[in-house]
Amino acid sequence: xxxxxxxxxxxxxxxxxxxxxxxxxxxxxxxxxxxxxxxxxxxxxxxxxxxxxxxxxxxxxxxxxxxxxxxxxxxxxxxxxxxxxxxxxxxxxxxxxxxxxxxxxxxxxxxxxxxxxxxxxxxxxxxxxxxxxxxxxxxxxxxxxxxxxxxxxxxxxxxxxxxxxxxxxxxxxxxxxxxxxxxxxxxxxxxxxxxxxxxxxxxxxxxxxxxxxxxxxxxx
Length: 220
Description:
CATH superfamily of the domain at 3-26 and 109-215: Transmembrane di-heme cytochromes, Chain C
Order of helices and strands: HHHHHHHHH
CATH architecture of the domain at 3-26 and 109-215: Up-down Bundle
CATH topology of the domain at 3-26 and 109-215: Fumarate Reductase Cytochrome B subunit
Structural class: mainly alpha
Largest sheet: none
Shape: globular
Number of strands: 0
CATH class of the domain at 3-26 and 109-215: Mainly Alpha
Distance between the termini: 56 Å
């Protein structure tokens, strides 16, 4: 079995299963923590509205903090959007998803994807470097922070290298493609056990905060 055959076969199969079961395990555990019943009389009367408002308002930082975190705020949204554009709208990726789901959608031109991937990669590298030198970020960062950023960067780097057919001595294109797939599989395996789970937690948790605050008669 070649490295590419492993990446396309057992590696992909097991990484997807670990990703799915890991995410479900984390989500089910979170829902079980909500079983405690609040016996206090609710003061608010519009929990759904309050939850939706919290989802919106907590997606942007308070104006008191905006001046201090503008760079982090803008670059954070930018690389998330760029990453998902590359993931969902690159032609080969669309075909990959269609193979598993029987659902297809239009892809973007390769030139658009390449520019988006390059910008996204540049932002992530800048954020990684900033975390290394910023006195506050450096102090509060953990292994998970660095590992998560690295595992998001690797698929972009290996994808750009394999797409460009970069000539590396004694390295075949099939090997570059296999490394790209393996970098994605490493991301999938690590995802459920890292801070990257905020992809599934972010909006439900904000909604939950809004509902809880409404129950207390406080606006989130």
